[in-house]
């Protein structure tokens, strides 16, 4: 059971950030009941009005894949993609240390 | 008292990632006693062997500035900078929603 940390950067079509944000937040609500999901944080870039960052932390990669493949999640993806400029940048990262809240996967 | 969230991306000189990571983790230890610091997570990019991401979450921006201006922190910065390819990318982000661990600043 390997943990999963993702840093996602999405560039939206001009003026579409709030609309995409609403879809992302609604989709993240589906993770509330999934205890393997420690974090799925939707944030706005302070300097670029067309950029959204989503930081994901899961204790189990398989659970993330399962959650992303549900029909409801695929519907959210279908809604968001046309509002983006190109595909999202997705960076998988591995924890090496530092200070983290309880429950975060360690190095 | 405004919260602060940062997504930092550092590109290191070839082969220097572990050395920079050690400096970052040692510097993050100084945040353990600072309760305003909810997270200072040092991670390695899974696909680029020269990239480190540091995700910071502070409940108080002033506390972050104070922590970064101490002589010991400046010494860590002095050690790390020569090992980087250019300056770090720093993205300030504002939380808008999603699932987060307890204690995280909300939207």
Secondary-structure blueprint of this entry?
The structure is a homodimer of 107-residue chains.
Chain A: E1 4-11, H1 17-29, E2 37-45, E3 51-58, H2 61-68, H3 71-80, E4 89-99
Antiparallel strand pairs in A: 1-3, 1-4, 2-3
Helix pairs in contact in A: 1-3
Question: Would you write up a description of this structure?
Answer:
Chains A, B: InterPro entries: ABM_dom, Dimeric_a/b-barrel. Chains A, B: It comes from Gryllotalpicola koreensis. Chains A, B: This is ABM domain-containing protein. Two copies of one chain form a homodimer. The first copy, chain A, has a single domain, classed as Alpha-Beta Plaits (2-Layer Sandwich). The longest helix of chain A is centred in the N-terminal third of the chain and has 13 residues. Chain A has a four-stranded antiparallel beta sheet, with helices on one face. Helix content of chain A is 29%, strand content 34%. Chain A is globular. Chain A is of the alpha+beta class. Chain A contains three helices and four strands; from the N terminus they run βαββααβ. In chain A, a hairpin with a 5-residue loop joins strand 2 and strand 3. At the A-B interface, helix 1, strand 2, strand 3 and strand 4 of A face helix 1, strand 2, strand 3 and strand 4 of B.
């Amino acid at each position: 059971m390997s943990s999963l940390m993702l840093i996602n950067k999405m560039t939206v079509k001009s003026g579409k950030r709030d609309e995409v944000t609403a879809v992302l937040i609604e989709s993240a609500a589906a993770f509330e009941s999934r205890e393997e999901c420690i974090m799925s944080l939707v944030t706005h870039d302070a300097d670029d009005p067309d950029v959204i960052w989503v930081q994901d932390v899961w204790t189990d990669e398989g659970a993330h894949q399962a959650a992303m493949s549900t029909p409801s999640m695929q519907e959210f993806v279908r809604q968001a993609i046309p509002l983006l400029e190109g595909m999202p940048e997705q960076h998988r990262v591995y924890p090496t240390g530092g200070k983290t809240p309880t429950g975060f996967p360690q190095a």
